[in-house]
């Protein structure tokens, strides 16, 4: 611990597991799957994101690679016509679970609707039917970054979106609707995906709608408080719905975790700032939300370095990789994975909250069909999870981000996160990346087989 406080984790992060590593199995009944989100792959109804996308295309800015976005946005809806075969692709990898979101805008395209749009209910019923047919456990997210356009019309006091006072009731209404419609088939729910990312990118950095740049790291506090109220209202509605039906639910949130480490191991201000950011970005919201959660949902994307300047201590920089470090293995988005940090994180979360953990996302951006970096990550992170379990962490499932390539928000279509590649110019045809075969072996052995470890583990 003291070593970590002194800033040594950056060094330690590059320790590779050795040839003598004892390969461990995950517990029996472990859930393997992939994750997706509505706005990234489905037919759209007007939302804050569709408005942002249209504006970006019109003004030719706001989304990286906006030219591609303009060409491909229309095709992102292709999951609608691939439900059965995409679910079959996941099942074929040995997946026994799947995480996806049900679009709030698709179910409630208008503000005055008391009942959901029947076509939306029919669509998600179809997704659940396919998952059931393939014997896969669904994990459903209620609010994955995009919300209906009507929520963003200012009220009389000029409050919009998440900050509208009725936002918690609105999300609770969606929760009640969904548990009434699907509570017989869905037990695992995630109220909000990555609330802190939403607050940070939407209200501080300004790259997500509503594209605000409020000053200072605490300036998004009101938004985070509003998101917490939304989560609590939705969680309560899900529990109440389950009680009415005489069933039970497992409710959580998906928290994006990065391991913030100092850029320079011996610069005290880097060390302190990294610790403060870690607390604000990872711990604070979780601490507040956990009393109303049954499990900890973890979206893990590696390491981030924090660099400060003595003369301007608040103008710190966050870097996602160290280009001078050959072991960094950064993705095409420049994010460095860190299986040791992942393992330690799972152990720490388990000790802190004493609740089951589901890894609701973990993945990397790599376009090549022979996606060696993703294959390495799958193998190393699987062994890291097994080691965390051996150290006492109650990890019950792993969902890879993502099943298929998708629309990566403000980064457009360039970053490819899919186990399956999509060719948007060829009818959205799918091609398996090398990781698909690797994943099959992991699910078959419920852990890393020795042959894979020898090839990709070290
Ligand atoms: O694509 C996103 C997802 O929507 C939320 N978690 C991180 C992923 C990769 O950036």
Enter the CATH topology name.
Answer: TIM Barrel
How many structural domains can be distinguished in the coordinates? 1
Low-confidence stretches: 1-9
Q: Mean of the pLDDT scores? A: 94
Largest sheet, in brief, is:
8 strands, parallel, barrel
Proportion in β-strands = 15-25%
Helix count, per DSSP? 16
Classification by helices and strands: alpha/beta
Dominant shape: globular
Helix and strand element order: HHEHHHHEHHEHEHHEHEEHEHEEEHH
Radius of gyration: 21 Å
- What is the share of helical residues? 40-55%
Q: How many beta strands in the DSSP annotation?
A: 11
Question: Please, could you describe this protein's structure?
Answer:
With 458 residues, the protein is an alpha/beta fold. The protein has a single domain (30-457), classed as TIM Barrel (Alpha-Beta Barrel), CATH 3.20.20.80. The chain contains 16 helices and eleven strands. The strands form two sheets. Strands 1-2-3-4-5-6-8-9 form an eight-stranded parallel barrel, surrounded by seven helices. A two-stranded antiparallel ribbon has the order 10-11. α6 (83-92) runs parallel beside α8 and α10 (195-205) runs antiparallel to α11. The radius of gyration is 21 Å and the shape is globular. The chain starts with a helix and ends with a helix.
């Amino acid at each position: 611990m003291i070593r970590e406080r002194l800033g040594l984790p950056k060094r330690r992060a590059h320790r590779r597991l050795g040839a003598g590593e004892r390969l461990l199995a995950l517990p029996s009944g472990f859930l393997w799957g992939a994750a997706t989100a509505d706005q990234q792959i489905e037919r759209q109804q007007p939302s804050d994101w569709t408005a942002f996308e249209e504006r970006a295309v019109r003004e030719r800015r706001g989304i990286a690679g906006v030219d591609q976005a303009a060409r491909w946005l229309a095709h992102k809806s292709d999951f609608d016509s691939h439900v059965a075969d995409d679910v079959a692709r996941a099942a074929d990898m040995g997946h026994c679970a799947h995480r996806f979101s049900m679009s709030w805008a698709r179910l409630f395209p208008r503000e005055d609707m008391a009942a959901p749009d029947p076509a939306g209910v029919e669509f998600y019923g179809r997704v659940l039917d396919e998952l059931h047919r393939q014997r896969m456990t669904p994990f459903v997210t209620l609010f994955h970054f995009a919300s209906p356009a009507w929520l963003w019309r200012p009220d009389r006091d000029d409050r919009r979106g998440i900050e509208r006072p009725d936002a918690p009731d609105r999300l609770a209404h969606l929760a009640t609707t969904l548990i009434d419609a699907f509570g017989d088939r869905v037990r695992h729910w995630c109220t909000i995906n990555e609330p802190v990312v939403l607050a940070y990118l939407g209200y501080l950095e300004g790259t997500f709608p509503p594209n605000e740049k409020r000053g200072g790291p605490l300036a998004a506090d009101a938004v985070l408080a509003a998101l917490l109220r939304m989560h609590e209202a939705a969680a309560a509605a899900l529990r109440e719905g389950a009680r009415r039906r005489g069933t039970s639910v497992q409710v959580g949130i998906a928290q994006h975790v990065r391991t913030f480490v100092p850029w320079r191991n011996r610069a005290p201000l880097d060390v302190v700032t990294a610790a403060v950011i870690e607390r604000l970005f990872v711990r604070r919201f979780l601490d507040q939300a956990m009393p109303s959660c049954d499990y900890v949902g973890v979206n893990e994307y590696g390491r981030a370095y924090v660099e400060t300047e003595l003369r301007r201590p608040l103008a710190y920089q966050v870097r996602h990789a160290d280009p001078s470090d050959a072991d960094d293995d950064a993705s095409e988005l420049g994010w460095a994975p860190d299986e040791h940090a992942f393992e330690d994180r799972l152990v720490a979360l388990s000790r802190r909250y004493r609740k089951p953990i589901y890894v609701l996302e973990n993945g990397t951006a790599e376009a090549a069909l022979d996606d060696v970096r993703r294959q390495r990550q799958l193998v190393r992170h699987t062994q890291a999870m097994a080691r965390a379990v051996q150290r006492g962490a109650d990890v019950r499932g792993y969902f890879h981000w993502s099943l298929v390539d998708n629309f990566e928000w403000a980064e457009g279509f360039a970053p490819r996160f899919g186990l399956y590649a999509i060719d948007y110019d060829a009818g959205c045809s799918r091609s398996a990346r090398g990781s698909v075969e690797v994943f099959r072996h992991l699910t078959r052995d419920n852990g890393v087989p020795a042959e894979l470890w020898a090839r990709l583990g070290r």
